[in-house]
Design brief:
alpha/beta, globular
């Protein structure tokens, strides 16, 4: 059976916590092969977490719940919202804090005012993004909204990547235009490789992709390299947005 047909489940879950299957719709912790994408998301959650101390936060489309848990380390209260029943059951069992709760409902149905709304890597899945963004602008004075950069995710010239869950992907100008029609202030940061991932990028430019297959070390190398990636191997910064992996917009109403 090839990797394309393999089922990936979370490993080593606490007693009583049902593992989730990796479907491609959302990223998961505790799946070694998924660690790159998981840490890419964690880097943004941790950055936001440093800026929500003492605030009431909603984490819309929270998925497995790891991001809501990270935010709850500093926030006064966090509500994780997701419509998926398996993710909801898993999150409630896995992440238990007195200031953290989860609700199973559509993000479009959440209407409780909060200090901060967090909505990461999901706007590209939404059929009516303008309607939802208008709702988020009413929920909170500050919103953190992220999406992948089409220019670095999709093949050159393509309208979108082959991710079947994505309805539309954005480049920086399109993303800014979408957000500025709903928020008074929009600042966009780009997520870039750092640390060992930056070194890996440079190695690829120098011909690493020719070397590892010739030496027949591709599988053992990446079996060690991918699980070793950490959130510190990504960095948010202003500028160079066309080369960014993801965009994080800080929006004010």
């Amino acid at each position: 059976m090839g990797d394309a047909d393999r089922t990936y489940l979370q490993e080593d879950q606490p007693e009583g916590v049902p593992p989730l299957e990796l479907t491609g719709e959302r990223t998961l912790p505790d799946v070694p092969e998924e660690n790159y994408w998981y840490r890419r998301h964690v880097a943004v959650y941790e950055w936001i977490g440093e800026r929500v101390a003492g605030l009431r936060v909603v984490d819309l489309a929270c998925g497995e719940g790891y991001g809501s848990d990270l935010l709850a380390k500093r926030a006064a209260a966090v509500i994780g919202v997701d419509a998926n029943p398996e993710a909801y059951v898993h999150a409630r069992a896995r992440y238990v804090r007195p200031n953290l709760s989860f609700r199973r409902e559509l993000v479009e149905e959440f209407g409780e005012p909060v200090d901060v709304a967090v909505f990461l890597q999901t706007i590209e899945h939404i059929h009516e993004p303008d309607r939802l963004l208008a709702q988020i602008a009413e929920l909170a004075p500050v919103a953190y909204i992220s999406t992948p950069n089409r220019l670095t995710l999709a093949p050159p010239g393509a309208e979108k990547s082959d991710n079947p869950w994505h309805l539309r992907e954005y480049e920086a100008g399109e993303y800014r235009e979408l957000l500025e029609s709903h928020f008074e202030g929009v600042e966009i940061l780009g997520l870039h490789h750092a640390g060992k991932l930056r070194a890996h990028e440079i190695a690829i430019r120098l011909g690493w992709d020719r070397v590892h297959p010739a030496l027949r070390i591709t599988k053992p190398f990446y079996e060690r390299f991918i699980p070793a990636i950490r959130a510190s191997d990504f960095r948010l910064r202003a500028g160079y947005l066309d080369r960014a992996l993801d965009f994080l917009a800080i929006c004010s109403s």
